[in-house]
Amino acid sequence: MYLADSRSTKAATTGAGRTAAGSGDAGSAASRSTDPAAVPGIRPGRRAAAVPGTVLALGAVSLITDVSSEMVGAVLPLYVVAGLGLSPLGFGLLDGINNGVGALVRLVGGHAADGGRGRHKAVAAIGYGLSAVCKPLLLAHTLPLISAVLAVDRTGKGLRTAPRDALISLATAPEHRGRAFGVHRAMDTTGALLGPLVAFALLRFAADGYDAVFAVSACVAALGVLVLLLFVPGRAATAAPAGGPRPALRDSLALLRLPALRRLTLAAVLLGLTTVSDSFLYLLLQRRLDLPAHLFPLLPLGTAAAFLLLAVPFGAAADRIGRRRLFLLGHLVLLAGYGLLLAPLHAWWAAPVVLLLHGSFYAATDGVLAAAASATVPAEQQGAGLALVGTGQALARFGCSLAFGAGWTLWGGRPVLAVAAAALAVAAGAAFLLIRTPGSPHTPDSPPDTGTTEEHPA
């Protein structure tokens, strides 16, 4: 059986760490009942909506913001490698900034957002605003400034991610969180789908293609901040008790004492260490197929289209079959994509299939991981708990980007991808052992993550 299941348990919380008593594991206060009256933001006597309005509003903000960020992300790998002459190792460092810097501030954002009513939106707004104000500086066309812009942009992403996901979790009934995160990620991915299309059109038809991409991206990012301020509720529900003490930062870090959260975080870290960056994957496809430069921004469309189509059904499936189970299966799908990319095939259909598998991987893991993590922490510390899992995964992917870039520089892209594929297979086996409940039969956890959690002592 997997880590979270539907069995009832008596858990006692001790201090800010909420450590488990006996064989029980501390669960989220919002996830201890499927009664709508127990979910923040849902009036007693009313049925909890599977997808609340707050989720849709945040999805619109993410859609607009992702149009902006993916416009830049679609052209940046080719721009810095082919246009500015950066080596794969250098690009690995630059791409690592995309993940590493944001990870370093994600804990700060999650902790700051847990302080009371309205703070989740306020911290998220600061994060979105940072990403918007730095975009015009990309027009400088120098590597140091581009690196600085990426650092600020990812700082903004790190600040906003945990508060945004906490808003989704707190606004949604526990049994519907997989679906709600799936809807949000589908809307987010719609932006990821539109961004490369806009970048492609600008590169194709604008006189100064890269400048046009960077300028339009800045304007779209500002629109996203405006939508957040106007349409996301300012007094979003929080589970912090009225007048209660605000958790200290050490209390947020102490959440790792919870066995459920600790094991999920370790599994995410192991798998993140073997997850090759999207940009490297697209560069490998572009070189394998010898695609012209103006077609490169279209490669992320395959991933985004698959993610968009599958995010909602996969999120709903996670609510039924188990979120941790689907999270692991998603990495096996990614492993299949690596295998196809390494196979001695030169047929035109190989690239679309790889992109389909890549998008399926994200649909099975991105929102699903957040939904799984939300059931392992107290409701008043949702931001910090989600940030811990996300930070571990992001730092691991930062390390993978550095290692993959160095390996590509020394040995070439395909040999180092083979090493990454083998490491991913090992990491998937280790993650399975981490997040299954010891001593339990191998049966599906149904319904998963919706009630209190139970775990035998490690």
What does the model show?
The chain is built from 14 helices and no strands. With 458 residues, the protein is mainly alpha-helical.
Write the layout of secondary structure elements.
Elements: H1 53-83, H2 88-113, H3 119-134, H4 143-171, H5 177-205, H6 209-231, H7 249-253, H8 259-272, H9 278-289, H10 299-321, H11 323-342, H12 350-374, H13 382-411, H14 413-435
Helix pairs in contact: 1-4, 1-5, 1-6, 2-3, 2-4, 2-13, 3-4, 3-6, 4-13, 5-6, 5-10, 5-12, 8-13, 8-14, 10-11, 10-12, 11-12, 11-14, 12-13, 13-14
Protein name: MFS transporter
Subcellular location: Cell membrane
Region (Disordered): 1-44, 438-458
Summary?
The protein is mainly alpha-helical. The chain contains 14 helices and no strands.
> What is the first-to-last residue Cα distance?
14 Å
Number of helices: 14
What is the domain total for the residues?
1
CATH superfamily: MFS general substrate transporter like domains
Strand content: under 5%
The CATH class is Mainly Alpha
Q: How many extended strands?
A: 0
What percentage of residues falls in helices of 4 or more residues?
Answer: 55-70%
| Uncertain stretches | 1-47, 236-243, 438-458
Q: Major sheet: size, sense and barrel closure? A: none
Order of helices and strands: HHHHHHHHHHHHHH
Name given to the CATH architecture = Up-down Bundle
Average pLDDT metric? 78
Indicate the structural class: mainly alpha
Report the principal-axis shape. globular
Radius of gyration in whole Å, from Cα?
Answer: 21 Å
State the CATH topology. Growth Hormone, Chain: A
